[in-house]
Specification:
There is one protein chain. This protein is mostly beta strands. It has a single domain, classed as Lipid/polyisoprenoid-binding, YceI-like (Lipocalin), CATH 2.40.128. Helix content is 4%, strand content 58%. An 8-stranded antiparallel β-barrel has the order 1-4-5-7-8-9-10-11. The longest helix is centred in the middle third of the chain and has 8 residues.
């Protein structure tokens, strides 16, 4: 079964250490994609596209810097894409989803811990499903190397990026052949 990610009910959030003493959190406001499941509901594959310029940390100057060539380079690389390469069930509601993330025209491996919710019909008759996913990546693996070393060796911007996704998807109608 094919499911379309519902952008208005999906959140892609991240967190990065700042000055080694606190955490800056942000999100991407625009995400699209598809999820594939077996007929009995087991997760098979995931593909998602994120509009890099939709990054939002709540601070306009920081967001502009994150969109610049020092970080996401949105003018040259407008999207981030994730494509699963393997889905390993832990049980019927928990998975490890390994895949590739392309960011700044560099592709590398990412592993997600995914918990899925059983599908249900919404008030308009659409079949919907949800999932929560989390993981960590090192931003330097994608060429995001801008930084400053501070007094006592702390980094201005942490290298590890924690991310959490809350995804809602809608089952796609299958056309019936005449």
């Amino acid at each position: 079964m094919r499911w379309a990610i519902d952008p208005s009910h999906t959140n892609v959030e991240f967190a990065v250490r700042h000055l080694g003493i606190s955490t800056v959190r942000g999100r991407f406001k625009k995400v699209t994609g598809v999820v594939e499941t077996t007929d009995d509901g087991m997760l098979k594959a995931v593909e998602a596209t994120i509009d890099a310029s939709s990054i939002d940390t709540g601070e306009a100057k920081r967001d502009a810097h994150l969109r610049s060539g020092d970080f996401l380079d949105c003018e040259v690389c407008p999207v981030l894409t994730f494509r699963s390469t393997s889905v390993t069930p832990k049980d019927d509601a928990h998975y490890v989803v390994d895949g590739t993330l392309t960011m700044r025209n560099q592709t590398g491996p990412v592993s997600l811990q995914v918990d899925v919710a059983k599908p249900m019909k919404d008030p308009w008759g659409n079949l919907r499903a949800g999932a929560v996913a989390s993981g960590t990546l090192n931003r330097k693996d994608w060429g995001l190397t801008w930084n400053q070393v501070l007094e006592l060796g702390a980094l201005l911007v942490g290298e590890d990026v924690r991310f959490n996704l809350d995804v809602e998807a809608v089952a796609q109608q299958v056309a019936v052949a005449a």
